[in-house]
């Protein structure tokens, strides 16, 4: 007796081979959206594609992009870091405090600011990895602690920035230093994720933490390093903000953690972990800056701008869900 033949649909690989352009668009939705948006704004206003405005976009996106590069490590590892905005302010305030109150050299206080951000991230990482606290709770607590410490150190008042930090906000030969720092941070993120054992471990932990542990990856140590890197990048962003303003503000980078998370998600990373890349995060940060810049040029109310940003984030998450389903 013959058995009936069974038919199955095309495999995901076959579908991708059949529609390579659609597959590329699905994996580069943020870049496609950025290109379409730039074309639309170019048509809508002649002021968009000018050198001055493009440099403004680069400067506006620099701090969010630096924060987002650090956030990429965390999200790839299936975590979340709500403290990056507060840690940015904390690192900058520590740098200014040791310069103003202790009289330390500017270059040394710059290093101190970075180290303080790294330490704050490491503390959150220890709470997640060894204390087994949910990342949301651990980083929410660090967000409050870091912001409170910033207010205590400063007494609620701005402090002058060290000259070495002020240089991070200056222009050299027509090139703004915030853009240079963003490029360096982006290269570092790309290198760590794609060229190091640490980066491969992040992807493995984000994909399946238990499988990563069974394969010999030191999961707890890696998570501490992940959150330490996020704190280090956050402190760098805080120093760039202080360099632009020539002073450390207690309320600096307030709410920036949401923009950082949005940039990573818009760039194609999954909040479930295991996916994400530096180039996508960069595109996500630029896309957010272009949206805000374009709406400002078109004189759109800031209230409506928040609605537009929220819709973009919702679309990005929905797009990620759709992309994930097509891979199954």
From TrEMBL:
Membrane topology field: Multi-pass membrane protein
Protein name, UniProt field: Ribose transport system permease protein
Principal cellular location given in the protein's record: membrane
Subcellular location, record wording: Cell membrane
TM region positions: 25-45, 57-75, 82-100, 106-128, 135-153, 173-193, 223-242, 254-273, 303-322
PANTHER family: ABC TRANSPORTER PERMEASE PROTEIN YPHD-RELATED, ABC TRANSPORTER PERMEASE PROTEIN YPHD-RELATED-RELATED
Alphabetical UniProt keywords: Cell inner membrane, Cell membrane, Membrane, Transmembrane, Transmembrane helix, Transport
């Amino acid at each position: 007796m013959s058995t009936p033949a069974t038919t199955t649909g095309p495999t995901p690989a076959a579908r991708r081979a059949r529609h390579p352009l659609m597959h590329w668009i699905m994996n580069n939705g943020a870049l496609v959206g950025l290109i379409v948006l730039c074309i639309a704004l170019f048509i809508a206003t002649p002021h968009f594609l000018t050198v001055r405005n493009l440099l403004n976009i680069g400067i506006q996106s620099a701090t969010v992009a630096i924060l987002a590069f650090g956030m990429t490590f965390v999200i790839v590892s299936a975590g979340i870091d709500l403290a990056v905005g507060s840690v940015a302010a904390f690192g900058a305030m520590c740098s200014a405090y040791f310069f103003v109150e202790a009289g330390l050299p500017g270059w040394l206080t710059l290093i101190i600011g970075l180290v303080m951000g790294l330490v704050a991230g490491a503390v959150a990482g220890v709470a997640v990895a060894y204390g087994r606290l949910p990342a949301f709770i651990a980083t929410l607590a660090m967000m409050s602690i870091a912001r409170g410490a910033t207010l205590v150190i400063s007494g609620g008042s701005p402090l002058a920035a060290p000259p070495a930090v002020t240089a991070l906000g200056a222009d050299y030969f027509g090139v703004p230093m915030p853009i240079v720092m963003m490029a360096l941070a982006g290269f570092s993120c790309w290198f760590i994720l794609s060229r190091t054992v640490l980066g491969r471990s992040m992807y493995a932990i984000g994909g399946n933490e238990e499988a990563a542990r069974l394969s010999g990856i030191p999961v707890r140590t890696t998570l501490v390093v992940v959150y330490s890197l996020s704190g280090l990048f956050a402190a760098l962003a805080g120093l760039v903000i202080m360099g632009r303003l020539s002073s450390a503000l207690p309320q600096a980078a307030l709410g920036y953690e949401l923009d950082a998370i949005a940039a990573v998600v818009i760039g194609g990373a999954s909040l479930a972990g295991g996916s994400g890349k530096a180039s996508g995060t960069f595109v996500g940060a630029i896309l957010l800056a272009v949206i805000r810049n374009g709406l400002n040029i078109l004189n759109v109310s800031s209230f409506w701008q928040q609605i537009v940003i929220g819709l973009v984030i919702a679309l990005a998450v929905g797009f990620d869900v759709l992309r994930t389903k097509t891979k199954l």
